Amino acid sequence: MMEVGIRRNREVVPTRNRSDDAKSLSSDRKGNEDKVTNKTLLSDPDVFAKYLQLLFNCMVVLSLFFMVGWFFYTIKLDVDFKVEQEKIRRRLRIQTCKDNYINNECAPELRVPALESLCDEWLTCINEETIDLNTINTSTILWAKTLAEVLNSFVESISFRTFLFILLSVTVTVVVTNVTFGSYRVYHYQNND
After folding, report:
1. Distance CA 39, CA 61 (A)
2. Which tens digit of pLDDT belongs to each residue from 153-164?
3. Which residues neighbour 21 within 8 Å (Cβ) at sequence distance 6 or greater?
4. How far apart are CA 101 and CA 104, in angstroms?
5. What is the mean pLDDT of the chain?
6. Inter-residue long-range contacts of 146-152, CB under 8 Å, 24+ positions, other chains counted
7. Is residue 2 predicted with pLDDT exceeding 50?
8. What are phi and psi of 158, to 5 degrees?
9. What angle, 0 to 180 degrees and rounded to 10, lies between the N-to-C axes of helices 136-157 and 45-103?
10. Alpha-carbon torsion 167, 169, 172, 176, what sign?
11. What are residue 11's DSSP bridge partners?
């Protein structure tokens, strides 16, 4: 439905309804939205650079988590090995006490007075139950000892300069990569404006 138009230079220019204006505005907006959402990963270098930077940073973080996890896993294996060694050592000690008690005839009716104190020690050793080495206190002590051994062997075998070089190399690599991606985005924005 057309309304009476405005006169310009002896021509009548038809005007549109407000509903027609609203329709054209909404179609313009949809067109702009389609242009924005149709950018693909490969067609927009800025989006590609952001995803590449995100991928790089995720790989760095995952590598760090993997190394820390592996470090604690190997320490756990060492602690488990030491717990087993301690159990074997205690079992052997108890077995040695049993053998000494039997071989020296330490039964109360056969006991020689000179061996009284030794027989009592062997009997105490035999009656000791194998203490559970998986208790929190024992486990914590073994963890601390193992961690101290690992750190001491690491510090002894690597010099301060080597450690500093590795730390600086990793830091510089991460910083330079992130700065490069950031400057690329700035360059991309400046050239597109």
Report:
1. 29
2. 877 888 888 889
3. none
4. 6
5. 77
6. 146/75, 146/78, 146/79, 146/82, 147/75, 149/78, 150/75, 150/78
7. no
8. -115, 135
9. 120
10. negative
11. 8
